[in-house]
Structures are given as C-alpha cells and as structure tokens.
C-alpha cells in the first residue's frame, strides 16, 4: 500500500465525493491507497442462494463480512429474506426494493452465490473506473446528445454466455444476441440501470406484459428485461472467469481474450471434470466427524403409469434404479472416472457398505416385472397431464408406510419414471445439506432448519405485482425431509384443485400455505443437457437430468458424451432394440 501526504489524502476524498465531475485518472493512486473503500461504500452484495458454503469450505458471507470487512447493511442473503419477501426469488424485486426503499448512496449491485470468488482489490479498481467512465459519458450526452462518443456500456457486466440452440429453459429463445451471465462467476449491474428498468416495466405500456409468468431462469429473465425495456446488454469482461484456469490459454474456454488474471471466478462442487457427482471436500470428511446420511434413511419414490412399466421403468432400473447395485455409496466404485475420489473416502464410507436407499415404484396399476420389480397400485386414476391426484396419493402412501416405521426415514425423493438420477451425487448433496443445517453444541445436535423442500426451483410470479409462488420441478427430482412430509400429510387444506392440476406446482402451493420455502439446489435439472449451456454441464456437478428415449441406445445417443459420464457401467447392446432388465 502506498503512502501519500496530507494533500494527497484530501485530493482522494475530493475525487471520491465529486468523482462524477472529475477525470477518473485522478483517482488511480487513491485506489491503491484504499484497496476496498469503493467496494465497502458503493456496492450492494446480493447473495442469491439458499446456501453459503462453497467447495473450499468457506462461507461467502464470512468472506464478505469477516475477511473483507464489508458492512452488513450492504449484504443481502436470499435465504434470510424469503419468508418476509416471497417475491425475492424472482431476483428483480430485490434490486428494485434496494433502489427505491433503502439508502440510495451506492453505485453497483454484485449478484453472486456460494460458488463465487473474487479478487477484491482488482474488482474495487475496475468498478470505480467503469462507473466513472459511464458517468462521464452520460454527462456529455446530457450536454450534447449528438456528441460522437461511443458508450462504454458499463451498466451490466459479467461472464457472457448465450444459447447455442433454442432451449426449453429459456422458452426456445431464438435471439443469439441475447446474452446472459454465468451466474457462478458473479455479475454486476449499475444502480442506474435498475432505476431505469423499474420505471420502464411499471409504465402502462409494459405493466400488462409482466403480470404473471413462470420464471425458469431469473438471471436470463433479467437480461431479457434489460435488453427489451432499456436496450442494455451484458458486457463480457474477460477477467470474469469461468474458473481460475481461464488464464491458461490451454484451458481457456470463453470466447474472449485470455486474461492475465481473474477478477471473479467460480469454484465447482463437482468431484472432477469426468466425475460429475457432487463432492464434499475430502479434508472436510477427515478433519471433523461429519453427520453422514445413512442410505437406509432415504426413500426414492418413482412416479409412473402402466404404459411405461415395461419401457421407462426397466430402462432406469438398468441405469440407476437398482437398490442392490447403484442406490448406495458403493456405486461410486462402479464409475471408473471417480476412482481417486472413491479411494480417498473409502475408509469413511465403509461403515455404510451394504446399506441401500429404499426404492418404491408407485403407479395407477400394480404388477411385478420379471420377479424383480414390484410396482404398487395407488388406486388412483391416471391423468394424461397434471398428475396432482397421483402425487397426493404418493405423499400419503409414503407417510403411512414410513413416517412411524422402524426405518427412521429422514429424506423422501420423488422422481418421474424418466428422471436420470446419479445416486451417489444425491447422497452427497444430502450430506452437504444435512451438515449445513445441523450444528453441534454441548447439549448435542440441534436443527437450524426444521423443514426441507428442495430441488430445482421455478417460480410462478409477477415482478410488477410483487408476488411469487415457488415450486420444485418434478422432472429433476423433489427432496422432502420427514418433518416437511409430516406437516404436509397432516394438512387438510393441501388438496388438488383438480385431478390433473400440475403436480409440482400444486406441491409448491401447499408448501407455500405451510410457510415452508422451496430451497434451490444446483445439480437438479429439469431437461436434457442440450438445454443448458456447456459451462454448466462441464463445470457444475450433476445430480439429475430429465427425459429418456425409447431405448437405452437412443438415450445414449441423445445424451451424447454425458451418458458415458453418468452411467459408465451401462452395458448397451446396440443390436437389441428391446432393452431387457
């Protein structure tokens, strides 16, 4: 850190207070003398996540507050606010509330999550410079709108990605110029942009367009709003890296110049590039006595129908739904890409050897297939769509069979018969959640979060009317703990509006009534890999995908290289069109 004289300090203070009227170059030495002052004073940190701890074992909240000294009033954590502000899961209501209701003396929003890391000194310098450049441009525009100066476009910055092919997640958007940020690396928006956007979307001409819709990716939707309403597009910053390896030309993946250093980057909770499961750090396993989930305290309920008993059910049994082979910690050994990790955790997980997840196939028709698969008849009529009545029956079946049983079930996972699940990744995800929510004190274990309703969160809501009903998408898998199941099964008001009401949305409505939040957890996916950007597929862990093919060979071709990573144990006979169990 440089040392400056008294006059220099006064100049720094003057430039900081009146920076919008002064050449930004005057501020360069001031930044060097106070490496986080601008971040502390002028940036609102929005932790858009239900969790705080990354794969390095660090909490992003601790990094901001304790390591960097960011004031608590400038830090927002989604999970602390959902109960009071349910609309906050749409993201934009958070930003609008901050520019209209809170202290307005700031310049930027930094949206990040538990996987985001950043160089605070470099970010501090970059943001001050970018904000000052934009202010100078706007000042000149106000003086003479015909001035021939190109906008620096510093209103919205991040690691830019877009859809190579139309994606169901983004409503089959065909505009390849519509860019959105890679969320794990974090991104920033100037306060001015949100102020302008708020005015625009609340105007009479726009308000009706945003009354209500289903939000499947709020970061993409924010980009779309900024683009359509006020013509602000995401600016790619090369130093906003996908991972720290982006500085190496050999591993650089972004369509940008190779940066000399990263200002922001993401840390992955994937075991390795080819071992796609969720990872708990090995040192976390070894340094303390973790509360590891016993597979026998987990039930997976597969929702199916008679028409798919001999196709989908038999397919997933060969891939993952065989309780004696894949539904346990030993399944990691069947994946050749995970051998190093498997050897490292072997002594820790050996005590669960031979313990398997409970498996239920629940349908509108009961039968036994090949003497191996028992399918339970729920005595409910199948619907061509919606399936609410079937889900209602599943909830009550699980409650009656397991809640008071000697099995001591802790977690219930409801999936479709065309959900592609990675059981080891599911178990490790539950390990993360269980150890995140459980603390220890002198009196033993206590629970910080009594109810769990978790998976991939979608939201039905309105950014102009400030409401949202969140729900976990059924195709990716729905996780409910025993306390949440008990409260749900005991709820007399939690019934279907009609037998074919969308089941996952009905479940979200019931939990909203019970004041149980929908917890988003990365890795659960509602669609096939082709519907997600490759950065997410190759750098994030995978717990599930959704949608099968007619045969295992077709599934393999459909999922391309991901099939080999997900199920390297699958022995596919491409000459046999009819898959046998």
Automatic annotation (TrEMBL):
Protein name, UniProt field: N-acetylgalactosaminide beta-1,3-galactosyltransferase
EC nos: 2.4.1.122
Location(s) in or outside the cell: Membrane
Main location: membrane
Membrane association type: Single-pass type II membrane protein
Keyword set includes Transmembrane helix: yes
Pathway of action: Protein modification; protein glycosylation
Domain Fringe-like glycosyltransferase: 345-557
Key word Transferase present: yes
Coiled coil: none
Organism: Cryptosporidium xiaoi
